[in-house]
Design goal:
Neurolysin, domain 3, three-stranded mixed sheet, 20 helices, homodimer, mainly alpha, 484 residues
């Protein structure tokens, strides 16, 4: 229906305004931009809660709809029901408080002062718990929050899955770090060369530049749906992998949006199915494909062509440099092995916050205890610990687990992909991703939001989502790399 | 009121979407962008015609408002009354027809085929006449259209003013073109140098880059209000004046928006007062200041610093090169002397179209006759004549005269400015525009839409708007340049 299509289009406009803010906006425009974004949010909120939607929904004859029509109906109904359950006063209070919370968090992080952030965190948590109560109807509060990001997922299921991941990841991490360190990069890489390779990699991973663009920003991100999906990257002279692998990661998100069936454009099924499924695409591009021995062999040649001799002797050494495991505090800088341990820590802590088992004031010590237990060394300051991520200051409880769920999904998909494309390594060794990407496109990406995340992954991977393939993959890869 | 402020903010968002389309948008995103823009237009139209506005207006006690409050009320009432008078069916028909008309015009222009454009032009004219009838309530149709762009202006007044301009401009043009041609530029100017000078000139003319930015686009334009006002420019290797003077022109528009009293931001008085007043600022920056002997003397030094010896011997020769008059078909490429003759031609023809005295099918021959009369040579093809401008294909009848009205206003303002800043030439000769810009800011720009365009100019210039100062200025300038 036209109203819905307009709302989708307005959502795209709001997204483009965010993109502009991170890439193009003059620095003196921030106050006015707040007004502009707030006005767009007001319009979108009014439309999403428009009482006419309930009328339309009650008049639709489902038996006349095809699969896409039924999926659209399901998503419209879901969004409307959720929006209608949240009192306008509460929604406004959340918006105001997270806006304030973000500023306080940024200052607290700069000062390594968790105590300064704890009171507003308690306020944000309280408001989000109220929202969860409104949504849950007597059910589990954490599940109600999680459902915003990963429809249908349950905290208890994730707890079981993550409980199986954690001990094997901790053990693998310890075994690897007992071994001699692999050599890394030591020289500086000029930014023009990094950006040139960024464009090569974006193309290699199927990004359609006629319907997208690459700009620099402080944080890499992907933005938009359908025919206008833009990514950003950044360059760090001493760490070209930061630029190259965040590009591949964002291209995973972006091509997913570009590859959704064009017939779904500007409808609720015209987007990725969930945050977890989105992350499965960005991570399989970045890790299972991009950090594979085969692909890094090809990338080594590209790096040599771009930068000349950069102190890495051969393809095997380069594969080691790309995948070396080392201690670190920061989730977003973590290697493939340790990344999920960072996420699991946050998942357990935020579940305890939402259930009331953990008081916000006690979060820092809980964080530091858990970090020491899983990573074997102590957090030195809050900005390297509990204050490192923006999410909780934005009220995003229930978001973190989608990162690891995405990795689990990527593990399942990669297992199926290897069966479907037996010649995969030989292709990746030539920088040829075409069959791998075509498989992902036709088995998963093209469907957009047609099916539930879990069904979509199960259909594509030919198995119920499980942590086993990811664990097997990581244990194989790092055992071989570190000669365990 | 909050509703109005949100509408203003949404208008800014829509404007930024247009900016994005001309500067950043990937070429494959055009279809989706149409949907996005249409959705924004739907929202804006609904808000501008929201029946609650009439209720609010009827409950406001004007005696409690200050000058700004009364001006806001006047502008809100004016917009609402205009919107309410236009039937929704008619507005939709106009939107559809000009969208089609634009495509047909572009193809007709490429083929130099006016006959292919005439039928849709007739449709557009008919619809806009219907709109004018709805607005005019028995009054003059052309005035009703003109009022959208220049509130309060009357076609008959402009006719008298332009009637006084035309013979003296035609005579001046003939006298100048009887004289030997002044030398122009002959070499190529690298684009990086042009862009570097663009930034120097933007700063010199007071553009606040912390609340704006400069990008390249096919057509130079200024976009936005308040704290986010962006301009574009373009570079032509053989014609650096195209880049430099369109930059100064757009900076005139942009600084006007930036300099409106910050208290008016996101209100109806937070913009320039009219198209004509806007053009007065862009033109006084570009011409009376930017093309003056004093300022070009300084600019000559900047050009030499940037490009080295570029074949112009001294400041006087450079002043001549900047201001040389030569025959041409195209309004947007016209020199300061001939520009208004192009506009006057369009004004007379569009008034005849709206009154019904001229049939759309006869427009091309009427154009060509008038062109030959005023410019002394024949139009060679429709793309150099009646099809050169986009305006009529977009239904913008009543827009053209604001260009010349802007020049007339600039003439009045410049006369007053010279009295207020007796030392102006010495300052401009140093590249110092600060006193001139401060005078424009405090006497005109800061007021935004507080007063009617005519009152605003009259207050700033200390005289009722008249064509005399512009004519005196042009006759002085070109008599001296061409030794008449």
């Amino acid at each position: 229906m036209q109203f819905q299509r307009e709302t989708e289009a307005l959502g795209q406009v709001a997204g483009r305004l965010s993109w502009d803010q991170e890439t193009m906006m003059p620095r003196g425009s921030a106050d006015q931009r707040s007004d502009e974004r707030a006005a767009m949010e007001t319009v979108l909120h009014q439309r999403r809660t428009d009482p006419r939607i309930a009328q339309w929904l009650s008049h639709i004859d489902e038996s006349e709809l095809d699969e896409a029509g039924r999926a659209q109906l399901r998503l419209i109904r879901r969004d409307y029901d959720r929006s209608a359950k949240i009192p306008a006063d509460l929604a406004a209070a959340i918006a105001r408080t997270v806006s304030r919370g973000h500023v306080i968090w940024a200052e607290a992080r700069a000062n390594d002062d968790f105590a300064a952030f704890a009171p507003v965190l308690a306020e944000i948590l309280d408001l989000r718990r109220q929202e969860a109560q409104a949504l849950a109807g007597g059910g589990d509060l954490y599940d109600a929050l999680l459902d915003s990001y990963e429809p249908g997922a349950k905290g208890a299921d994730l707890d079981a899955m993550f409980g199986a991941l954690r001990p094997r990841l901790v053990a693998l991490r310890e075994a690897v770090l007992d071994k001699p360190q692999l050599p890394g990069l030591t020289q500086s890489f000029d930014e023009d060369g990094q950006m040139a390779l960024t464009h090569v990699l974006a193309k290699t991973f199927g990004y359609d530049m006629t319907r997208g663009r690459v700009d620099k920003a402080v944080h890499p991100f992907s933005s938009g749906s359908g025919d206008d999906v833009r990514i950003t990257t950044r360059t760090v002279p001493l760490d070209p992998f930061n630029c190259l692998y965040s590009t591949i990661h964002e291209v995973g998100h972006a091509t997913y949006e570009q590859n959704v069936n064009a017939a779904y454009r500007l409808t609720p099924v015209g987007h990725g199915a969930s945050m977890g499924v989105h992350e499965s695409q960005s991570r399989i591009y970045e890790n299972q494909l991009g950090r594979s021995r085969a692909f890094t062999g090809w990338l080594y040649g590209q790096m040599r062509d771009t930068f000349g001799d950069f102190g890495i002797a051969d393809e095997d050494a380069f594969y080691g440099a790309v995948n070396r495991v080392k201690n670190g505090y920061i989730r977003t800088e973590a290697d493939e092995l340790q990344y999920n341990l960072h996420v699991l820590l946050r998942f357990d802590l935020e579940r305890a916050l939402v259930s009331g088992d953990l008081a916000p004031a006690d979060l820092e010590s809980a964080w530091n205890d858990r970090f020491a237990a899983d990573f074997g060394f102590a957090v030195d300051k809050a900005s390297n610990g509990v204050l490192q991520d923006v999410h909780w200051s934005a009220g995003l409880f229930g978001y973190f687990p989608t990162y690891t769920l995405g990795n689990v999904y990527a593990g399942c998909l990669y297992q199926a992909l290897r069966k479907a494309v037996p010649d995969l390594d030989a292709q990746l060794g030539q920088g040829d991703t075409s069959q791998a990407l075509a498989w992902l496109r036709s088995n998963l990406q093209c469907h957009g939001g047609l099916r539930s995340p879990r069904d979509l992954i199960a259909d594509a991977a030919g198995m119920s989502p499980s942590e086993e393939p990811l664990l097997d993959y990581l244990e194989d890869k790092f055992s071989s790399l570190y000669d365990l």
